[in-house]
Amino acid sequence: MEHRWGMAIDLDRCTGCEACVVACHAENNLPISTPEQAAQGRTTHWIRIDRYYEGEFPDIKVRYMPVLCQHCDNAPCEPVCPTYATYHNQEGLNVQVYNRCVGTFYCANNCPYTVRYFNWFAPEWPEPLALQHNPDVAVRPAGVMEKCTFCIQRIKRAKQDSAAEARPLADGDVQPACVQSCPAEAMVFGDLNDPASKVSRLAQDGRATRLLEELGTKPKVFYLRKG
Amino acid sequence: MDRRNFFKILSVTSAGALGGCGGKADRAIPLLVPEHEIVPGEEQWHPAVCAECGAGCATVVRIMEGVRVVDRNGEAVRERIAAIKKIEGNPLDPISGGRLCARGQASVQSLYHPDRLRGPMKRTGQRGQAAFAAISWADAIGQAAEMLAKVRAADPARIVFLGGAQAGTRSLAIQRFTEALGAPAPVVCSLADHAVEHKAAEIAFGWKGLPVYDLAHAHYTLGVGADFLGGWASPVYYARQFGDFRQGRRQIRGQLVQAESRLSITAAAADRWLPLRPGSEPQFLAAVGRMLLDAGLARKPEALPKAVVQAFQAADPAALLATCGLEEKRVRQIVKELGESEAPLVLAGASVPHTNSVDAVVTSHYVNLMLGNVGKPGGVHAPAEASEDPGNRALLASKKQPPTQPSRDREGAVVPADPRLSQSLAHAQVVLIDGANPVYTMPHSAGVTDAQARAELVIAFGSFLDDSAAWADLLLPDHHALESEMALVPAVSERQAVAISTPFVEPLYDTRAVETTLAELARKIGAEYQGVTPKDIVQPLLTEGVSYEDVAREGGIWLEPPPPTSPRPPTVAPSFAAAHFEGDAAQYPFHFQPYPSLQFHDGRGANLPWLQELPDPASSSIWGLPVEIDPKTAAALRIGNGDVVRVESPYGSLEAPAYVHPGAVPGVVSMAIGDGHSHYSRYASGRGANPLAILAPVWESSTGALVLGATRVRLARAGGRRGWTQFSTGDRQERGFDGR
Questions:
Q1: Which residues of A161-188 are buried (b: 16+ CB within 10 A; e: fewer)?
Q2: Among B69, B266, B613, beta carbon nearest to A43
Q3: Which of B28, B198, B358, B469 satisfies CB 3.0 to 4.6 Å to B460 for a cystine?
């Protein structure tokens, strides 16, 4: 395959400011929950900031960690889907085909990162909020599962632009919304097949680690620990 | 949008190529997008300005086709419009560097908010009931002008304009309007104008404006009281600086120690956190200064006059640190590391102001002088406003006035009420409000609501029917910032800079720019008002060969920073006085700290669903903000996580869910500002409690800033968990719902 998309997140830069979370909502037409739906745990955040406290006052540490679909090479969500709604594409993305999904929930049950979100309700945007919707991204109906796509629409747009200019894709041409927004520049996206790409170099860094690596899921999101 | 792409788009525009079918259609042009130029599926990018806080980040806005349904003669008609899809940072802007915070990105939701005011309105019910009916612009302006003319003729001092903290076309227009009417200067009515930090920079260095901290090049930073990664002066700028401070250099990883009375997101990002007792920042910094002098680590003690050095030498570190609640040995170690660092920096501010916060920030400047980092890489730099360039008067004029008359008398720190606000409002007959929501941001005890109720005419210019607008007689809604022509002067910048936006989408509703409304009012009254445009503010900064149109196309102008100059030597000796707190410590044993958060700021973000859904960084709560209580206090009062707790001050009480915060300082109760709006759209009205409402009317004496941290409270459990949700916690039981 030509590309193998991956991400590096430097936890030493990350401040937990959640700019990435709003960027994702704006880019991907994420449904807005009501307080009642939120109370039932029905909110949707393709990327979320997990927050951990370690130790006790006054020697307490806070850890913030952006968690999104890890686009595993060995994705536990894929083999369990009876309708092939979730599959691995040519570029290593773990892709969800909404109109195949019948909502069995098997994929979400099998995801160790709990990054899959089910549309329990038909999404509603009181007029004229929907004017903000990104026409590049489909609005999902009730009854289907959804999750981070690594902003596949941005990957396609970058490819179209580079093709129009008759040049190969350069490192940094593709930036998912979360990566683009990050004020501390904690997130880097790129092609893991290109050994010179920034993400490939960061993946080799001594601080790099992967989430729940021991499960053998082979995630393509690399976390660089603090320090 | 990255820098390379943005440049590419600019070059397409300047070459005059207008895209079209088959070509790359995205381009940045500061012009209105005509309907026939909207090609389905194709995007355009336009420069704009983020007006959510005073940081003045330049942005770029993605525009694509949108369809809205409008009512035409009772018939629903679908109309194609140029719709804004996304907001990103402008890569040419050295402040945002192409990045943007959560609030800036969410501001598109206020443009397309279902509860935005759609035209001028007139009160029909009692004040405060928020009953309004539509009225024509001609009638609205006529009624407003009539009353303004009457009051102006009798006593123009009774016309009061309450404004926000942003400096730019708007603040200049309001200033010119009040001058034209002979009314008092507008009152900056904001929690986010950083009056304390401004004042301290003026006292210590003679600078007018916020000091710029070169965090990215510092090796060791001691943060004191400034939540600079959270809701402080310029969150995107400091987050970018922080990223580079940590990992932007090959061999150096910056070390951050944060001394603060709350585990803010800055304290969370720090290597070590020193939990200070509230209001003990000056004592802590005095001890730091003394220790540096004693250890011979003050590199430039000669930068300080004798009186200042003597004040530090008279400080007793052991006694001072005991009042801060800190262990002396630990602080000594940190001071040693700070003093020995190649590029040390003390970054102090007042995210939660106390009565002695000006002393704290002044003392921090003296410690920086001692460390010899002023004007040096990794140190403290002068703001652009310090420039004496005479060609830049328009820019200086647009900078806001200090909120109160300057006063050097800092002896009696406690003033019963903000002298200027209360004096102006006490006899106000006409109150005009733009960019402020005083009924929400001022404590009930300050009497703002009473003053609005007493006034003969209250005019609100905001886009939403908020807490203050509910007490108004006329609503004259402004265009949304994304529909406006505006210039903003960034709050934190060592360069002379202006971010500008020219209109590129048609206003959605029957709204009018405040500048237009003011000009119309002045014309009707017969006052000589001179309008203001972004061009007026940019003109003095234009260099040869650069036109205003160039600046408009790039979204702003950012000049090269001037070479560093030495600040004038300080003249005022520091004071390490203790902070004053309202309420008897026996009856009200806890300190209360409402704080501006990253997502809601001074409460203005609460009307946006994206921000309501954004988990609070401390408690991970969504759609509701909790009171943060330490585990020992919670256990003693039998308060469990999520229980409803009653917080009572001598000036009022509130009920809110409790978050038992493992990092809360014992005896200190904190709460993010944002909930508790009486009116502020379907997403915020009547939701939760406003922590500002129960504060004592205590104002920092030299600036008039509301002292957020001066109120003592008592706590009691008021009931079990009711409708409070946490999004993500380590302990699933803590979440309050099962099955995820």
A1: beeeeeeebebbbbbbbbbbbbbbbbbb
A2: B613
A3: B469
A chain contacts of residue B109, beta-carbon cutoff 8 Å: 129, 132
Interacting residues of B393 by C-beta distance below 8 A, sequence separation 6+: B540
Q: Measured between beta carbons, which residues in chain B are less than 8 angstroms from residue A62?
A: 263, 267-268, 663
Return residues 176-195 of A near B (CB < 8 Å).
177, 180-186
Residues B453 and B126: their CA atoms lie apart, in Å, by: 10
Nearest Cα neighbor of B363 from B194, B575, B580 is B575
What does the block give as tokens for B511? 């709204």
Scanning B341-437, the segments in alpha helix (DSSP H) are 357-371, 393-398, 419-426
Q: Could you tell me if B350 and B173 are in contact, meaning their C-beta atoms sit under 8 angstroms apart?
A: no
Does A50 touch chain B if contact means CB atoms closer than 8 Å? yes
Q: Measured between CA atoms, how close is B402 to chain A, in angstroms?
A: 30
pLDDT at B188: 87
Cβ-proximal residues to B7 (8 Å cutoff; 6+ apart), any chain: none
> Could you list the residue range(s) of the whole structural domain that residue A165 is in?
5-224
Reported as a single tens digit per residue, the pLDDT across A73-117 is 999 999 999 999 999 999 999 999 999 999 999 999 999 999 999
Domain B121-189+400-478+513-540 class, CATH top level: alpha beta
Q: Where are the domains of chain B?
A: 1-100+480-505+542-577, 121-189+400-478+513-540, 195-385, 590-735
Is B14's Cβ below 8 Å from some Cβ in A?
no
- For domain B195-385, the CATH superfamily is Dimethylsulfoxide Reductase, domain 2 (3.40.228.10)
Tens of pLDDT, residues A112-164: 999 999 999 999 999 999 999 999 999 999 999 999 999 999 999 999 999 99
**DSSP SS3 for B219:** coil
Fold of domain B590-735: Barwin-like endoglucanases (2.40.40)
Write out the two tokens for B648: 């009572």
**CB-nearest partner of A23 from B105, B230, B737:** B105
Minimal Cβ distance to A60: which of B99, B113, B663: B663
Distance CA B676, CA B686 (A): 6
Q: Which of helix, strand or coil describes residue A148? A: coil
Q: Which amino acid makes up residue B633?
A: T
As for the ipTM of the complex, it is: 0.97
Cβ contacts (< 8 Å) between B268 and chain A: which residues? 16, 62, 64
Residues contacting B733, CB < 8 A, separation 6+: none
